[in-house]
Amino acid sequence: MTAATIATTRLRLGLAAIALGAFSVIASPAAARGPEGIADVAEKVIDAVVNISTSQTVEAKGGGSNTMPQLPPGSPFEEFFDDFFKNRRGPGAGKGGERGDNTPPRKTNSLGSGFIIDTSGVVVTNNHVIADADEINVILNDGTKIKAELVGVDKKTDLAVLKFKPTKPLVAVKFGDSDKLRLGDWVVAIGNPFSLGGTVTAGIVSAKNRDISSGPYDSYIQTDAAINRGNSGGPLFNLEGDVIGVNTLIISPSGGSIGIGFAVPSKTVVGVVDQLRQFGELRRGWLGVRIQSVTDEIAESLSIKPARGALVAGVDDKGPAKPAGIEPGDVVVKFDGKDIKDPKDLSRVVADTAVGKEVDVVIIRKGQEETKKVTLGRLQDPEKVQAAVKTDEPAPEKPVTQKALGLDLATLSKDLRTRYKIKDSVKGVVVTSVDANSDAAEKRLSAGDVIVEVAQEAVSSGADVQKRIETLKKDGKKSVLLLVSNGEGELRFVALSVQ
Question: What is the C-alpha to C-alpha distance for residues 138 and 127, in angstroms, rounded to an integer?
């Protein structure tokens, strides 16, 4: 490098330093360090935040120093370690370097976070922090370790409530109103990241009502406050020192914070915690319907503008919706006074409604709004809601195969039921073939599907299907709404173009 080049470089660096210096003079000191009051919040609530220590006895696999580390598939070290452990032999080693069956079980430990909500010793944390634990301990901010008992868990929202007997007066925190949060509001997270207890981080609310498809009731607060492994179950505070969320998830390719963390909002937490403390379990409301999204095509077919609500695809025969008169094809647009924009909205509001409460459900049926009164039942099996099937027997008809909408259609017969494994309770017109270049193929219709209704009218033959389609074309409709069942009787709506 020549002297001239060095001088030029030094000059540029000097100008850069001057520019940065000028910027630092102009910048507001308050903006540089964040809002006032974070230290006050931390000092006020720090003693209510606890570490959660758990231990679990697990069966050893391979045991001892001969256990091959768990590596990601395709790792460059995978082949090396594979060869190393297969060729290594140690005391008690079996084939491939693994130890025999005499390796004793071992204990594993994990750490998370939680917070005290009642000075009697009630703690809130995440379910995944204490899941499958043989022993749970609460570690206070001063290091005191106390054994805790599990009060109850809710896997759907990943929340748990613990109880321990305090040995001295405790500090408790209260819940704030997460609905009042605004984008850009400052929040403070306190927890036990990487076993570093009492860690305080701050950031803003990046998004609200975030659905990341982790569960049926997703409605997370997204924040850029640093949240890492071990923060799970810890509180997210507003600047008044109220808990407005429980830190639960992060998105990170490395396992460390990249500024995308998620907290269960306090509005959800309060309801879950109250039920866990009262009953030891969740008692969620149940409507007894299977629902799907209202696409633009479906909305056009049902004369709904704009597209909104939750489309009822099936009704449980034993559910509360059945006696209330709710039917497949109805679109729920309001439940108990709350607007329903999509199926997630309906799932959340039904679950949060008290069992046994009578509510008004506003539906759209054939373009007209109707109000149904429903007395909610209790959700017994949240994993799967069984769809109801129709039992009206169609008039016997000679099997006929016809084409419509790129589909080969046939009247159901005993042979076709056997071929496609269709239950006797499923009625309609069976699809025997699908044109690969048709809209039906794009919407994933396949042989063995059964068309139950066309434009909300029952069909029992290919001729019925063709007749309904011709009528819709004459009425100027661009698409037709089909109610389709699989062989098990599970229903869904599909909109196909008639052009």
Answer: 15
Q: Which residues pair with residue 183 across a beta bridge?
A: none
C-alpha closest to that of 228 among 187, 261, 266, 263: 261
Picking from 54, 215, 235, the residue whose alpha carbon sits closest to that of residue 136 is 54
What are 401-459's pLDDT values in tens digits?
678 888 889 988 888 998 899 998 899 999 998 888 888 888 888 999 999 998 888 88
pLDDT of residue 305: 86
- The span from the CA of 314 to the CA of 287, in Å, is 11
Residue 136 β-bridge partners:
54, 148
**Could you write out the DSSP letters of every residue in 80-142?**
HHHHHHHH---TTB-GGG-B-TTPPPEEEEEEEEEEEEETTTEEEEEHHHHTT-SEEEEE-TT
Q: Spell out the SS3 assignment of 302-328.
A: CCCCCCCCEEEEEECCCCCHHHHCCCC
319 φ/ψ sector (left φ>0, alpha ψ -120 to 50, else beta): beta
Active site residues: 128, 158, 232
Residues in the chain, overall count? 499
| Residue among 220, 315, 308, 218 nearest 261 (CA) | 220
* pLDDT, tens only, 131-176: 988 899 999 999 999 999 999 999 999 999 999 999 999 999 999 9
Peptide bond connecting 253 to the previous residue in cis, omega within 30 degrees of 0: no
C-alpha distance across the termini of the chain, in Å: 72
Structure tokens at 88: 């290594």
